[in-house]
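#dry-run=false #mode=assembly
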Amino acid sequence: MKNHDNHISSYSLNLTVLLTLLILTTISILAIKFYLGAFTVAIALIIASVKAGIVLTYFMHLKFENLLLRLMVMGVFLLFAIVIVITFIDYYFR
Amino acid sequence: MSTTEHSEYIDSDTGKLGMWLFLFTELFLFGGLFIVYAVMRSKYSNDFHQAALELNAFIGATNTVVLLVSSMTVAMSLTAIQQNRPNLAIGLLLITLILAGVFMMNKYFEWGHKFSLHLYPGSDVMKTLPHGEIMFFGLYFMMTGLHAIHVIIGGVLLIIVIFKLKSGKINQEHYLLHENGALYWHLVDLIWIFLFPLLYLIT
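#status=ok
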């Protein structure tokens, strides 16, 4: 009934998370501007995934949620990864 | 004790779980488009390179910063209501709405520029482009457009939260709608985190 057991994130934690996200954004922009190699897409996707992980963990409070919810979120992302892999297997080997 | 109290029972854990289940469907809604993007990019990498140069990375980066900051203000507004400071929560949500407005203004100018160059699905200029570039612009309009619709829906949701904060229906004890509204707004941010590098940064 009440949300008493919920964790309260402090303002300073939220600010720290934002600054981390902004730094990662800057890194990804610089990495792609100055390094136009074969790994550009991979670098951009890895940094984006780290940012997404930070948003899920701290802004969306997954760090403080129960295990069931955390496992569900992980399971859905795993499912999505499998769908991508299967799509590409189908695409390259048909 | 009484039946009225029973009817007001709110199971916030289940309510939040329901919101997450909905967010999963949203993930696959955009996920499908990301898969189309991935396959088309590997098939027409040169066309995608050419077409991506048309996009303004500066506007994309600006909107990234705007959305990230708005995500923080939403998270802070939830902290504020948990600490029983409804006015601070409302203020932070109003800042979020202003940032959403800035995002949509940038989008308006960005799309307006594309339309002035006759780069929109079905235009005469578009028909002369190579197939891969048509695919890129189609995906660009579809993905950013669908995302912009989500920004508008999220904004409306936050306006409802503001009114309920004002009337006291959302308070330190009951803030499930506020929490779910915040989750939706973070999802909007989450999707943009992937859209920005894929459409604007990688050329």
